[in-house]
Task: structure prediction
Amino acid sequence: MELRVELKKSFDGFSLDVGLTLREDLIVLFGPSGAGKSQILKMISGIVRPDEGLVSVGGQTLFDSAVGVDLPIRERRIGHLFQDYALFPHMTVYGNIAYGIAHLDRAVVREKVGELISVMRLSGFEGRYPHELSGGQKQRCALARTLATGPRLLLLDEPFSALDYQVREKLRADLLNIHRLYPITTVLVTHDLEEAYMLGNRIAVINNGRIEQIGGREDVFYRPATRNVARFMGARNIFSGRVSSVDASVVTVACPGIGEIKANVPPGSKPLAPGAEVSLCIRPEEIIIIRPDRVLDDRVQDNIIEGRIESTAGRGSTQILFLRAGGEAASGTLLKIELPNFVVRKLALATGKRIRVSLKKENVWIIPQ
Result:
């Protein structure tokens, strides 16, 4: 079911102007709080009226400011799941799921609700009320109620944000399975980086009411179009520099505080000329520690940087190292490196230790300015 959206809306001190098209896919709207993600969902569903634009689903126009079309919410056949679930407290799990299809034949309702209770792992909880359910169970019940009505489009507004990590992790897997069983065009809003990568076949990065980049997860995560996208996607090592030389496949960039960095020429990019200002980025987990007891191989001979570990921070199964390039000078560039705990222990990496690292040129991405 194709979704086509062109939306413009002005708020007090903020404007939104976005356009996207998708089919039976799961797209993630990702970006910082206040970027306009939830407002986009509200305009698609009809809760908020755009100033101008178009919303069409499956070829049917739901909103078109040019010709005065604005279908009521109840006629749009869109499922909209909010952060707070909005379950009816006086109804059981069965009653909540059946609410939107209560007008159908009783046997049809029983079959449909039973199917969703099984899929959502709610068997045995049919007679319970919302206050008797866990957060994850409430979320699954709310999603089942939304799916029961047979929506042609599913909008999910940060559906897992109020849940603890283990529950979120399980529900993400549930959502992927549900999308496989019910291949409905789905738009999910999140500002959780891990969630965006796990769930989004495509990701649209929203910033200040605009789409800065839209594409497959690999493109958005590893080939960001702007410095903002690189920062939002976790590529914390972002440098500015000036192109010093270019050959058929490699660009060399002079970066203050870090030296000359080589990177592969971005495929399909506009030609870069010496003197051009660019940005470079590399993800923390893609920086390689050079072991002093090993001979350098061809893969890590470029972009070798020496420095001193300024601080470390634990992140569960990984450690973050902050390396000051050049060593002692505070003006040296600070690199963020993420390594598995066992690597940190094996190499005895600790604050104050001097090490060398390699920024493999195939992992360095150039962002033209």
In short: The chain has three domains: 3-230, 237-282, 287-360.
